[in-house]
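#struct-help
A.M.: can someone run this one for me? Single chain, 140 residues.
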Amino acid sequence: MATVELDKLCRRIARSISPFFVEFDQVGAFPDPDRARVLWVGGSTPAPYVDLVRSVNDALERTGFPPERRHPVAHTTLARVKGRPDRRLPEIVERMNPLPPWRIRVDRIVLMESRLARSGAEYSPLFTVPLGDGGGMESD
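D.P.: on it. Structure tokens below:
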């Protein structure tokens, strides 16, 4: 699917979702701290985030992409783990939690392209789409 088509798909979906907040208060790892590939900071996954992810996944599935079976997890990637994670990582993650909470305003979709290089993944934004009318906020 071309970037232009993805942009149009996201614009259609984004109009129906107002900006919202995500509260981050924990550190975790995917798939889990014992086999970490990704370290993240996140928190509870609010309904608007689930709706947004589900809408994008459903639209992509209708265009031929395979269905996404995992439940959406609101998070920001902190680091990617190369090789075997340190055996102390589960204990470190556990001791870091809970974090003092902070809120992030989600007001746009950004499609990022990642390219693997010797130094690690390099990310470039392909397009940005504002949520809703780009103005008002939904209350928590």
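A.M.: thanks! Helices lie at 3-14, 47-62, 89-96.
D.P.: also worth noting: The first helix runs from residue 3 to 14.
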